[in-house]
Design a protein that fits this description.
Helix content is 26%, strand content 35%. By secondary structure, the chain is of the alpha+beta class. A nine-stranded mixed sheet has the order 6-7-8-5-1-4-3-2-9.
Length: 367
């Protein structure tokens, strides 16, 4: 089974048009397609957004018993489907279910109508999808594509606009997805992706922040293009942000999606100008930054002004920043990340940020 990457993510949301307006206005996405009852998607309305290699589907339920309606009632807006690109959806579905994944939806082929196929000039333009269980009530959609990328799910979610031009766009790809699980769920969730999907565990860390603690493991596909960061709270420590997420989200779920960029300074500046609000970073964090991570690959003044965090692994540096949550439940948020050689994740940012904040609050750290 060859996993090529994250094909798309699908969010179940209360109002797809309103969410699309925000993501397009603030983050530079473009609405490129839609589907609903008129295309055979009974009980739902969906919009396809694109930027760079990123594809985001926003789906709202139109009837009370649609899965999107129930998801939003229980969790609020959030990621319900993670699409994974494969070379053979039927074979991947068969192999994954044999290994222990729960079948959700068997393979189905989507093809464009005759006029659309003639317009595109493609003889073999089809998409095959199947769905299996992931974690909690999040499913994985296995996607096999043939023909030009312009098509998404022909006959269901029809492309209405061409892909957006890359000029002026700052987000390029989905770097990783962070998932919160209840205490005791970390090891079995990581093992599921290793044993069933053939992922490899590439990183693990225990982080103690004051009286709080959390464990994390990172699992990654053999191609390196699908990465999940799994996080659980330490029940022996004081409740913290992971406990809050699990309570407000009503169980395990996607805490944040990390969008990769080629220039984080440019990206954060542009997104801030369009109204995106980022989590603040204490000025004291930057006082010892070069001592912790070595020579910086970006100007310190720019990093300090924008609040960008810097860490490193054995291969290089990674620069990252987190947005404030977009939702009233304060659950799902986004990350912007630039990798300058780094292949995994550093281990210093959370503790360094916490210590800098404590020093700033106590007045013991000069700013």
């Amino acid at each position: 089974m060859n996993i090529s990457g994250i094909d798309h993510i699908e969010l179940y949301v209360g109002d797809a048009r309103q969410t699309a307006f925000y993501l397009c206005t603030a983050f530079g996405f473009k609405v490129c397609g839609q589907g609903g009852p008129q295309t055979g998607l009974d009980g739902q309305f969906s919009l396809l957004l694109r930027q760079g290699e990123i594809q985001v589907v926003l789906t709202s339920g139109l009837v009370a018993d649609h899965p999107a309606t129930e998801y939003v009632r229980r969790h609020g807006d959030g990621v319900a489907v993670i699409g994974i690109g494969v070379d053979d959806a039927a074979a991947a579905y068969r192999r994954l279910t044999e290994r222990g994944a729960e079948p959700v939806s068997p393979p189905r082929e989507y093809v464009p109508g005759e006029s659309a196929a003639k317009e595109s000039g493609a003889d073999d333009q089809r998409v095959v999808v199947a769905e299996v269980s992931g974690f909690s009530d999040v499913t994985h959609r296995l996607v096999e594509r043939h023909g030009p990328r312009r098509e998404f799910l022909p006959g269901a979610i029809e492309v209405t606009e061409p892909d957006p031009h890359s000029d002026g766009k700052v987000l390029r790809t989905i770097d990783h997805i962070a998932i919160c699980v209840p205490a005791g769920g970390l090891a079995p969730t990581a093992r599921y992706y290793v044993d069933v999907f053939g992922f490899e565990q590439i990183f693990e860390e225990y982080v103690e922040v004051g009286g709080q603690g959390m464990d994390s493991k990172v699992v990654q596909s053999p191609s390196g293009h699908v990465t999940f960061t799994l996080i659980e709270p330490d029940p022996e420590r004081q409740p913290g942000q992971i406990d809050n997420f699990l309570s407000w989200h009503a169980g395990a779920g996607v805490q944040h999606v990390a969008f990769g960029t080629d220039d984080i300074v440019k990206a954060v500046g542009a997104l801030s100008d369009h109204g995106v609000r980022f989590l603040g970073t204490p000025a004291a964090y930057y006082d010892t930054l070069e001592e912790r991570v070595g020579h910086l690959d970006a100007p310190l003044d720019d990093l300090r002004r924008l609040g960008v965090l810097v860490d490193r692994d054995h291969w290089g540096q990674l620069l990252q920043i987190f947005t404030e949550s977009m939702h009233v439940r304060r659950t799902l948020f986004l990350e912007i990340i630039e990798r300058r050689g780094a292949l995994t994740f550093g281990s210093g940012n959370i503790k360094a940020l916490y210590e800098a904040k404590q020093g700033e609050l106590s007045g013991t750290t000069a700013t």
